[in-house]
């Protein structure tokens, strides 16, 4: 089940030293994260396990270069705040392939 977050209402991204440092540890840069949201998103689901203080979501998508990424994020004041980003694992790649969205 996909989740409609009303992306037409999103006004950009929220970046700071903390989330930039975290994604860089996984070898991902902020431009790649933004590309996942600009390109056709394959799957967005609510992350109920990590949604105690605020709603969090998981996204599977791809960059302009075809890199398949997993992104954990939240929405604050109409901006996407990436919490973490990394390459997809085998199971996530399988899900993309199964629904016909694998690019990388």
Brief rundown of the structure:
The protein is an alpha+beta fold and 104 residues long. Helix content is 26%, strand content 30%. It comes from Candidatus Woesebacteria bacterium RIFCSPHIGHO2_12_FULL_41_24.
Task: Explain what this protein looks like in three dimensions.
The structure is a single chain. With 104 residues, the protein is of the alpha+beta class. The protein has one domain (7-98). It contains three helices and five strands; from the N terminus they run E-H-H-E-E-E-E-H. The protein has helices at 17-25, 30-38, 90-98, and strands spanning 12-13, 43-46, 56-62, 68-76, 79-87. Strands 1-5-4-3-2 form a five-stranded mixed beta sheet. The longest helix has 9 residues, at 17-25. It is globular, with a radius of gyration of 13 Å. The protein starts with 11 loop residues before the first strand and ends in a 6-residue tail after the last helix. 19% of the residues are buried.
């Amino acid at each position: 089940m996909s989740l409609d977050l009303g992306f037409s209402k999103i006004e950009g991204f929220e970046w700071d030293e903390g989330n930039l440092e975290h994604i860089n540890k996984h070898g991902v840069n902020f431009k790649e994260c933004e590309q996942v949201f600009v390109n056709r998103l394959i799957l967005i689901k609510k992350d109920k396990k990590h949604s105690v203080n605020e709603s969090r979501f998981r996204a599977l998508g791809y960059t302009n270069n075809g890199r398949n990424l997993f992104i954990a994020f939240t929405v604050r004041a109409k901006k996407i705040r990436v919490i973490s980003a990394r390459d997809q694992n085998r199971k996530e790649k399988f899900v993309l392939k199964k629904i016909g969205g694998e690019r990388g």
